[in-house]
């Protein structure tokens, strides 16, 4: 089983030491698990039904007790901790949400702070802040009851309630599995945004490999009660540790890898560039040029036909750029943008500026970036250090 190195400044939030869960009928749900989860890390546990991933998660808050081994949370052996007190400092989100039907959304969200002795006014104030954080206006939704919400809205309330006591650890068991694909993708996006803001340590159980890849900082791929590989999504997709993992992540793992491979500046080409106030050039040695403003921010593009159309400035004939992304966006987003706009390339800008142009990404460069990323992970080197072999002259001797 492969493990990746974590930054030295990160502490360990969850640690499993040779943990086994064996039932009275002889069934072994998990077998000799040893792994660590760093502070602020989101780890997805993925595998087929009955593989032990949910059992693993439930042992962290002692809903299931291990038969052997020890589990530590924040350095404390949880077997020595009162289970009720332990659960009150670990957030827990399940697929069915489990909201109290007789309580309002605000009251549901304030449940755990109430149990911890927080005064009613403060608890409701905290609940309102969290509802706003998960995208539910407390003025609109706070007084509603669970039956008045959509499935996606109930899931948001479940996440808000789990965060209400500001727990260091969040356990999520197939939380988005009961909603339709469109709502599910939206919830995933919102959860990633939320995680960037709150940086909890998260164990996220799913049977969906694409969800595991999209959300996880690292993934644990389960076989029968054991972790077959524990690494970053890009490494697992690019270098499966064995045939089981390769089969589980699928033959299309190269396409899945697009969603976890970012655009880097080294992937970009430099096209001809003109500025808005430049006079139209007498000659343009390309079919088109990128158009920038006076601050070198992306404005649009101009075709060779319009560039040679006579007197005037580039501004008079420039067209707005629709197909663009910030550097650091994924190759999947780049590919989708090309398809959406029927574009042969996309412009890439600096994400930390007002739109400073960096270069363009073409389909050929996108393919190269994917190949370099796979090779870099396999050889443990920087992506820019990978030299690709290119086949030329096909059919020639």
Structural notes for this entry:
32% of the residues lie in helices and 22% in strands. The two termini are 45 Å apart. The protein has 15 helices and 17 strands. It has a six-stranded mixed β-sheet with strand order 6-7-8-3-9-10, with helices on both faces. The chain has a four-stranded antiparallel β-sheet with strand order 2-1-4-5, covered by helices on one side. The protein is an alpha/beta fold. The chain has two domains: 249 residues, 3-Layer(aba) Sandwich (Rossmann fold); 106 residues, CBS-domain. The longest helix is centred in the middle third of the chain and has 18 residues. The N terminus and C terminus are likely disordered. Helix 5 crosses helix 7.
């Amino acid at each position: 089983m492969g493990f990746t190195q974590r930054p030295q400044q990160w502490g360990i939030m969850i640690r499993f030491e040779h943990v086994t869960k064996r039932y009275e009928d002889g069934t072994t749900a998990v077998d000799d698990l040893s792994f660590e989860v760093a502070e602020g890390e989101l780890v997805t546990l993925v595998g087929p039904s009955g593989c032990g991933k949910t059992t693993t998660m439930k042992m962290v808050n002692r809903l299931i007790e291990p038969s052997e081994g020890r589990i530590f949370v924040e350095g404390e052996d949880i077997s020595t901790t009162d289970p009720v007190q332990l659960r009150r400092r670990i957030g827990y989100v399940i697929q069915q949400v489990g909201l109290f039907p007789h309580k309002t959304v605000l009251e549901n969200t304030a449940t755990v702070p109430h149990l911890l002795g927080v005064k009613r006014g403060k608890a409701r104030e905290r609940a309102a802040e969290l509802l706003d954080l998960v995208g539910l206006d407390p003025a609109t939704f706070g007084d509603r009851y669970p039956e008045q919400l959509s499935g996606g809205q109930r899931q948001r309330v479940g996440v808000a309630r789990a965060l209400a006591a500001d727990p260091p650890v969040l356990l999520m068991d197939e939380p988005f599995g009961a909603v339709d694909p469109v709502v599910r993708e939206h919830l995933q996006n919102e959860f990633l945004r939320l995680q960037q803001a709150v940086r909890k340590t998260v164990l996220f159980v799913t049977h969906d490999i694409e969800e595991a890849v999209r959300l996880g900082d690292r993934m644990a791929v389960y076989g029968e009660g054991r972790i077959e590989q524990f690494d970053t999504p890009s490494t697992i997709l690019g270098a499966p540790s064995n045939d089981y993992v390769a089969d589980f992540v699928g033959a299309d793992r190269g396409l899945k890898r697009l969603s976890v491979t970012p655009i880097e500046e080294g992937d970009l080409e430099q096209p001809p560039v003109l500025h808005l106030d430049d006079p139209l050039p007498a000659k343009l040695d390309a079919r088109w040029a990128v158009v920038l403003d006076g601050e070198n921010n992306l404005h649009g593009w101009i075709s060779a036909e319009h560039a040679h159309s006579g007197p005037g400035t580039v501004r008079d004939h420039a067209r707005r750029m629709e197909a663009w992304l910030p550097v650091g966006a994924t190759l999947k987003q780049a590919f989708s943008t090309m398809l959406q706009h029927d574009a042969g390339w996309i412009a890439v800008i600096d994400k930390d500026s007002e739109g400073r142009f960096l270069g363009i990404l073409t389909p050929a460069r996108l393919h190269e970036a994917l190949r370099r990323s796979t090779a870099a992970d396999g050889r443990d080197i920087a992506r820019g250090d990978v030299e690709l072999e290119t086949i030329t002259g096909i059919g020639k001797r």
